Amino acid sequence: MNPFTFGNPIKEPERFFGRKQEIRQILNRLLSSAHESTSIVGERRIGKTSLLLYLAHPKVADSLGLTPDKFCLVYVDFQGLTDITPQRFWQRVLKKMVRSVCDSSLVPAIQKLSEQEAFDLFDLEDLFQAVMDKGLTTVLFMDEFEYVTQNPNFKSDFFGGLRTLAIHNGVALIPSTRRELVDLCYSDEIKGSPFFNIFANVILRPFTRLEVDELLEGYSTQGEALLTPAERDLIWSLGGGYPFFVQMAGYYFIEGKAQGLFGEALEKFVTNNFDQQADAHYTYMWSHCSESEKITLLTILTLGLQKPSRKTIPNLENLVRIRARTPQDLVALGKRGMIEERESIYTLFSASLVRWIQREIVALPGEEENKQKAEEWLASGGRDNLKETKGILPKFKKKYWPILAEVTKELSFEFAAAGAVELIKILI
Q: What gap in Å lies between CA 168 and CA 74, rounded to an integer?
């Protein structure tokens, strides 16, 4: 049986690895006298849901000090609930509470309120105060909370009410979102709400190499998942520190071995299947990059294709010299786990992502624009200083010409041209 899985969050505590520092931060706030709230922020597929489910698991929670005589843990997933209203929000939360609250004497009151057609903040305050009077802190693990913050059905009074419950009525909030909460609001009015001041952010970043090896080692004890050092290196090259991608690469290694593959045939099988499965996820990640971030990614990629020299190493010094805005992009891309810094050198987190970007921006044979179109495009935008690129631009999809022109302008034509040639060589 293949111990690696991907596509669904990890639900079994014994299959959960890593996140020790993040768990410690969340616990320290929950176990404080104020039972403080924490916002979990992380890129898609970075493991937010798995972390919430792990913390909410009864056995795990008990071992961490979130014992049922002191905490009522409620996990709610809001993914896909685009039409949810505040009333439905609380009905969903309260119905979950009925199943999770440890004091049975509280169940009738929770059940009654959940079945009411309408209730207000006073009703909620009374209920959670009753829970608190029993010595219980309610912890709401709210997955995909952006479906709430970005929903115009939720006005400032809703968030103000949540803040009141958190401060005065024993409710700790642990939402998970793809971006920081304040950046995921549908209006400036909501962004200005004091609700967002009660959270400390815990950002989920990719695993370190040590954490990846711990995961692979742990899974090797759960089935026939013995992996050689070279195979682990390839998994790291493909998946970087993303647990989801690590699981994906591990899955195809075990599947390939089950088919009797080994050596180069096995590596090809793993790499091809991984690239195919990761395609949609890379599309999502790329589409959520700003144009500036795309330019920075392409600059790092292009420098990495040059013959190594003092000026071509993609370190901070060279990247800043090329483009002043790069440090801001590096911070944002680093938070999302799309780049890694190893020994002061920046790279994209996965060799597979590098291949995807190459396929994404290069025009297929027969789909290329001609040089005349490139000349007209350069002339129409007042890009006369980039006219040397007219022979290179047609090799790339036209929608990426503005970004490639920026890269060329920043890098100098010689560097960019050399990088473009290498890109094209790889693909033909």
A: 18
